[in-house]
Amino acid sequence: MPSPPTRVTISQEDWLDGSAMQQTDGRVRDYKLVYPETGFDPMTLCLGVVEIEPGTHSPLHRHRCEEVYYVVRGTGELEEEGRRHPLKPGTAVLNRPDVAHRVHNTGDEVLQLVVVAGIMLVPLLPQWPTPSPYEVFEGTSASDHPAAGSEPEEELDAPE
Protein backbone atom coordinates (compact mmCIF):
# COMPACT_ATOMS: atom_id res chain seq x y z
CA MET A 1 0.00 0.00 0.00
CA PRO A 2 1.46 3.41 -0.96
CA SER A 3 2.30 5.79 1.84
CA PRO A 4 0.08 8.87 2.22
CA PRO A 5 1.26 12.11 0.62
CA THR A 6 3.72 14.10 2.67
CA ARG A 7 1.66 17.27 2.28
CA VAL A 8 -2.08 17.96 2.08
CA THR A 9 -2.30 21.79 2.23
CA ILE A 10 -0.07 24.74 1.33
CA SER A 11 -0.19 28.37 2.50
CA GLN A 12 0.85 31.34 0.39
CA GLU A 13 4.13 31.80 2.26
CA ASP A 14 5.15 28.31 1.07
CA TRP A 15 4.44 28.84 -2.65
CA LEU A 16 7.51 28.11 -4.78
CA ASP A 17 8.64 30.63 -7.37
CA GLY A 18 11.58 30.99 -9.72
CA SER A 19 10.45 28.61 -12.47
CA ALA A 20 11.45 28.88 -16.12
CA MET A 21 8.30 30.91 -16.83
CA GLN A 22 9.10 33.65 -14.34
CA GLN A 23 10.77 36.93 -15.32
CA THR A 24 13.82 37.93 -13.31
CA ASP A 25 12.44 41.45 -12.78
CA GLY A 26 9.23 40.10 -11.19
CA ARG A 27 6.85 41.34 -13.91
CA VAL A 28 5.74 37.74 -14.53
CA ARG A 29 5.44 35.61 -11.41
CA ASP A 30 4.84 31.85 -11.66
CA TYR A 31 4.00 30.29 -8.30
CA LYS A 32 3.91 26.52 -7.86
CA LEU A 33 1.42 25.35 -5.23
CA VAL A 34 0.55 21.66 -5.64
CA TYR A 35 3.72 20.28 -7.28
CA PRO A 36 6.23 17.57 -6.36
CA GLU A 37 8.72 20.39 -5.66
CA THR A 38 6.42 21.78 -2.93
CA GLY A 39 6.15 18.48 -1.05
CA PHE A 40 3.05 17.03 -2.68
CA ASP A 41 2.77 13.69 -4.43
CA PRO A 42 0.26 14.49 -7.21
CA MET A 43 -0.66 11.61 -9.51
CA THR A 44 -2.16 13.48 -12.48
CA LEU A 45 -2.55 17.23 -11.80
CA CYS A 46 -0.58 20.24 -10.57
CA LEU A 47 -1.83 23.65 -9.41
CA GLY A 48 -0.21 27.05 -9.73
CA VAL A 49 -0.90 30.78 -9.86
CA VAL A 50 0.54 33.13 -12.50
CA GLU A 51 0.59 36.91 -12.10
CA ILE A 52 1.47 39.20 -15.00
CA GLU A 53 2.05 42.93 -14.55
CA PRO A 54 0.37 45.41 -16.95
CA GLY A 55 2.06 45.87 -20.32
CA THR A 56 3.99 42.60 -20.37
CA HIS A 57 3.44 38.93 -21.20
CA SER A 58 4.52 35.45 -20.27
CA PRO A 59 7.20 33.83 -22.45
CA LEU A 60 6.06 32.00 -25.57
CA HIS A 61 6.20 28.34 -24.51
CA ARG A 62 4.68 24.90 -24.86
CA HIS A 63 4.55 21.74 -22.77
CA ARG A 64 3.51 18.14 -23.15
CA CYS A 65 0.30 18.22 -21.14
CA GLU A 66 -3.07 19.91 -21.11
CA GLU A 67 -3.32 23.06 -19.03
CA VAL A 68 -6.36 25.01 -17.81
CA TYR A 69 -6.32 28.71 -16.90
CA TYR A 70 -8.98 30.44 -14.84
CA VAL A 71 -8.78 34.25 -14.78
CA VAL A 72 -9.21 35.59 -11.25
CA ARG A 73 -8.52 39.28 -11.93
CA GLY A 74 -7.28 41.61 -14.62
CA THR A 75 -7.70 41.59 -18.40
CA GLY A 76 -5.55 40.35 -21.22
CA GLU A 77 -5.24 38.07 -24.21
CA LEU A 78 -4.22 34.48 -24.77
CA GLU A 79 -2.04 34.19 -27.88
CA GLU A 80 -1.91 30.80 -29.60
CA GLU A 81 -1.65 29.56 -33.18
CA GLY A 82 -1.61 33.10 -34.59
CA ARG A 83 -4.80 34.18 -32.81
CA ARG A 84 -5.52 36.24 -29.72
CA HIS A 85 -8.42 35.47 -27.41
CA PRO A 86 -9.72 37.97 -24.82
CA LEU A 87 -9.32 37.19 -21.12
CA LYS A 88 -11.27 38.72 -18.23
CA PRO A 89 -12.29 37.56 -14.74
CA GLY A 90 -14.30 34.36 -14.97
CA THR A 91 -12.76 33.26 -18.30
CA ALA A 92 -11.54 29.65 -18.51
CA VAL A 93 -9.01 28.44 -21.10
CA LEU A 94 -7.95 24.96 -22.22
CA ASN A 95 -4.41 24.83 -23.61
CA ARG A 96 -3.73 21.65 -25.60
CA PRO A 97 -0.41 19.78 -25.40
CA ASP A 98 2.45 20.97 -27.63
CA VAL A 99 0.66 24.19 -28.72
CA ALA A 100 2.87 27.27 -28.29
CA HIS A 101 1.11 29.99 -26.29
CA ARG A 102 1.59 33.03 -24.07
CA VAL A 103 -0.57 35.44 -22.10
CA HIS A 104 -0.51 39.25 -22.55
CA ASN A 105 -1.71 41.64 -19.85
CA THR A 106 -3.51 44.38 -21.80
CA GLY A 107 -5.12 45.99 -18.76
CA ASP A 108 -4.01 48.38 -16.03
CA GLU A 109 -3.91 45.93 -13.10
CA VAL A 110 -2.19 42.61 -12.41
CA LEU A 111 -3.59 39.73 -14.48
CA GLN A 112 -3.92 36.72 -12.15
CA LEU A 113 -4.54 33.19 -13.42
CA VAL A 114 -5.12 29.97 -11.54
CA VAL A 115 -3.38 27.23 -13.54
CA VAL A 116 -4.21 23.52 -13.41
CA ALA A 117 -1.94 21.31 -15.50
CA GLY A 118 -1.28 17.65 -16.08
CA ILE A 119 1.89 16.15 -14.68
CA MET A 120 4.63 16.98 -17.17
CA LEU A 121 6.73 13.85 -17.42
CA VAL A 122 9.14 14.81 -20.21
CA PRO A 123 11.80 17.12 -18.77
CA LEU A 124 13.15 19.91 -20.96
CA LEU A 125 15.62 22.71 -20.32
CA PRO A 126 16.41 24.59 -18.09
CA GLN A 127 16.90 23.17 -14.57
CA TRP A 128 14.72 24.64 -11.78
CA PRO A 129 15.02 23.15 -8.97
CA THR A 130 14.32 20.02 -10.98
CA PRO A 131 14.33 19.67 -14.80
CA SER A 132 11.75 22.04 -16.29
CA PRO A 133 8.79 20.59 -18.19
CA TYR A 134 8.51 23.76 -20.30
CA GLU A 135 10.00 24.44 -23.70
CA VAL A 136 10.47 28.23 -23.61
CA PHE A 137 11.07 30.00 -26.94
CA GLU A 138 12.06 33.43 -25.65
CA GLY A 139 13.92 34.95 -22.73
CA THR A 140 12.46 35.66 -19.34
CA SER A 141 13.70 39.21 -18.74
CA ALA A 142 11.75 42.44 -19.16
CA SER A 143 13.88 43.44 -22.13
CA ASP A 144 12.56 40.41 -23.99
CA HIS A 145 8.93 41.28 -23.22
CA PRO A 146 7.82 44.62 -24.69
CA ALA A 147 4.35 45.83 -23.84
CA ALA A 148 1.47 44.14 -25.62
CA GLY A 149 0.77 45.81 -28.94
CA SER A 150 4.21 47.44 -29.18
CA GLU A 151 5.99 44.50 -30.75
CA PRO A 152 5.88 43.26 -34.32
CA GLU A 153 3.62 40.31 -35.02
CA GLU A 154 5.52 37.08 -34.52
CA GLU A 155 4.89 33.66 -35.92
CA LEU A 156 3.79 31.25 -33.22
CA ASP A 157 5.31 28.23 -34.93
CA ALA A 158 7.93 27.08 -32.47
CA PRO A 159 11.46 26.37 -33.62
CA GLU A 160 11.98 22.80 -34.78
Automatic annotation (TrEMBL):
- GO molecular function annotation: metal ion binding
The answer on whether this UniProt entry bears the keyword Coiled coil reads no
**Compositional bias (Acidic residues) at which positions?**
151-160
Specify where the region named Disordered lies, as residue ranges.
Answer: 135-160
> Metal-binding among the record's keywords?
yes
What InterPro entries does the record tag this protein with? Answer: Cupin_2 (IPR013096), GPI/OXD (IPR051610), RmlC-like_jellyroll (IPR014710), RmlC_Cupin_sf (IPR011051)
The segment(s) forming the Cupin type-2 domain are 49-116
| Keywords from the named record | Metal-binding
> What organism does the record attribute this protein to?
Maioricimonas rarisocia
Supply the Gene3D superfamilies for this chain: Jelly Rolls
Under which name does UniProt file this protein?
A: Cupin domain protein
